[in-house]
Design brief:
434 Repressor (Amino-terminal Domain); 6-stranded mixed β-sheet; 4-stranded antiparallel β-sheet; Immunoglobulin-like
Length: 328
């Protein structure tokens, strides 16, 4: 049985290693992206769960590793759990076959090794009743605190402590106005007379004219049409009505903001590396841009000047395909 269990573990590890090699990733790439030590990744691929941190961490490593590779993390976690249960079942069988009862336990004892009845049983009933009463008191105090906070907010609003600025006081194109897509000014906006505070493109300065953008990325006008669809479980497609594509990828400026990226422009691999936190990459193509992101939740995207937000949710590897649909 032990040999069979070891073979199952090794088979699971071989599947993960094959998927990694298929994606063209090294163990160092996986370690940087998942924050799992190289030694533990090698142990997972070798099917050796006798690591110092224990089997619970080994199961977590299997789940994270499978999710990073684009596999079903819950399925691999479940498979390892079944293999681990086989080992624990063998241990129980060996313990039961010895015929020796655990010390300090009798058929007439409770789960704490104390005999039923007598003053021991009475004292445990008092403890249980006290615990239930404490929980009820805690729930009642929490309910009172919520009601008190709600009442305070209502009183504060009615007394005028919360003051909101009327919309009529907001300067057109100023810092309180919402810029349109691509930084264009709203129709009919005045071209001068009000001094702005400078800043992002689309805000007015002292002359009342929009400041030029320093980015070479094309601006998305209101006529830009983008269609999004889910192509399969790990692929999202965007169809953009334009003659060419410009996609900008930005990683979050946080400690855990690294992301492995592969970019294919018009059928040719132009980039494949791990981006550091706070990095930015621009890709251009005539017909199609295909991105594969190891950690899509730390990446923000924009296409032809239009902000698309977060590339994807926390989870496995994500493929994103951008295609053009000619305007003429």
């Amino acid at each position: 049985m032990e040999e069979e269990r070891r073979e199952k573990l090794k088979a699971l590890g071989r599947e993960l290693r094959s998927k990694r090699e298929e994606l063209g990733l090294s163990i160092e790439d996986v370690a940087q992206a998942t924050k799992i030590r190289r030694a533990y990744i090698e142990a997972v691929e070798a099917g050796d769960d006798s690591i110092p941190v224990g089997k619970a961490y080994f199961r977590a490593f299997v789940k994270s590793y499978a999710g990073f590779l684009g596999l079903d993390p819950m399925e691999y976690s479940r498979r390892y759990a079944q293999i681990a249960l086989e080992e624990s079942g063998e241990s129980r069988e060996r313990t039961g076959s010895s015929g020796r009862a655990r010390p300090g336990r009798t058929e007439a004892s409770d789960d704490q090794g104390q005999p039923h009845g007598g003053w021991h049983g009475a004292w445990r009933k008092v403890q249980r009743a006290g615990s239930a009463g404490s929980r009820k008191r805690i729930y009642a105090l929490l309910l009172c605190a919520v009601l008190f906070a709600a009442a305070g907010i209502v009183v504060a609003r009615n007394s005028g402590l919360f003051v909101t600025t009327p919309a009529s006081r907001t300067q057109p194109g100023g810092v309180n106005s919402s810029p349109l897509a691509g930084g264009t000014s709203p129709p009919g906006a005045p071209s001068g007379g009000t001094a702005g505070r400078g800043g992002q493109g689309g805000q007015t300065g002292q002359t009342g004219q929009a400041e030029p953008s320093t980015s070479a990325e094309p601006k998305a006008g209101p006529e830009l049409e983008i269609t999004k669809e889910q192509l399969d479980r790990e692929t999202v497609g965007f169809t953009i009505k334009a003659d060419s594509l410009v996609v900008v990828l930005r990683t979050l400026p946080v400690d855990d903001g690294r992301c492995w990226v592969r970019a294919i422009c018009d059928g040719r691999v132009v980039f494949e590396a791990t981006l550091e936190p706070g990095s930015e990459r621009k890709f251009e193509a005539n017909r199609e841009i295909s991105l594969r992101l190891g950690r899509p939740w730390v990446v923000n995207l924009s296409a032809n000047g239009k902000d698309l937000g977060q590339a994807g949710p926390f989870g496995p590897v994500l493929n994103i395909v951008f295609k053009t649909e000619g305007t003429s």
